[in-house]
Amino acid sequence: MYHSVTHTTDDPYRITVSPPRFERQLRWLRGHGLKGVSVAELLRARAAGTARGLVGLTFDDGYADFTAEALALLRRYDCTATVFVLPGLLGGANDWDPLGPRRPLLDERGIQRAATWGMEVASHGLRHLDLTHVDEDTLHREVRDSRQLLRDLTGHDVAGFCYPYGAVDLRAVAAVRAAGYRYACAIDPGPLTGRYALPRVHVGERDNGWRLHLKRSLHRWRREEPADLPEGS
Ligand SMILES: [Zn+2]
């Protein structure tokens, strides 16, 4: 789970990886026989039994630096990724983070560019709201309308959703399924872990090869689905 790829020293939420560090992480992946792919591709491969060596790469919030910095590096290392964007804040900024710093978000052209270069464009809702704290109408608008807007913008079906703040409950899962998404990403594992609440591992500026090894092996048991969940949860 990445957010922003840029040079900065002002990073109170630790959501930023510098381009040289990101490149070293991609080189580490490829050097270990691994390949970064979008979540949709990872799930397709898992269903076909061909997911060995694939690692899902995600970028939350859809910062403009995704196309300015990350995209060229992903392509150089023959990787793809999923970028979770906010079609209600096109060309806006991350105003939901009270501490800042303000960072520009992708606009229409940026989102189309990401899709054109083979990245999976998926939804992070319209305006980065905590879906566990909104009324029913807002919940459905955030989930359903963002999917429609992205479909119109990219011309592609939109398979994935990512809960803002990783905040997920049964009601949010139900809304995401009803809107037609095929998977959704959360952050931490929990009772809802499964296709509609996939846990992810944060990767940051301090993650060198040794820490990536550790995170990869820990994630293997961290992502296990609880055995007593109903089908498709
Ligand atoms: Zn976010």
TrEMBL record:
Keyword Glycosyltransferase tagged: no
CC per GO annotation: extracellular region
Biological-process GO terms, alphabetical: carbohydrate metabolic process
Protein localization: Secreted
Predominant subcellular localization, coarse grouping: secreted
Any GO molecular function: hydrolase activity, acting on carbon-nitrogen (but not peptide) bonds
EC number(s) per entry: 3.5.1.-
Keyword Hydrolase: yes
Enzyme kind, highest EC tier: hydrolase
Domain NodB homology: 53-233
Gene3D superfamilies the record matches: Glycoside hydrolase/deacetylase
Alphabetic keyword roster: Hydrolase, Signal
UniProt cross-references to PROSITE patterns, sorted A to Z: NODB (PS51677)
Name assigned to this protein: Poly-beta-1,6-N-acetyl-D-glucosamine N-deacetylase
Biological source species: Streptomyces hundungensis
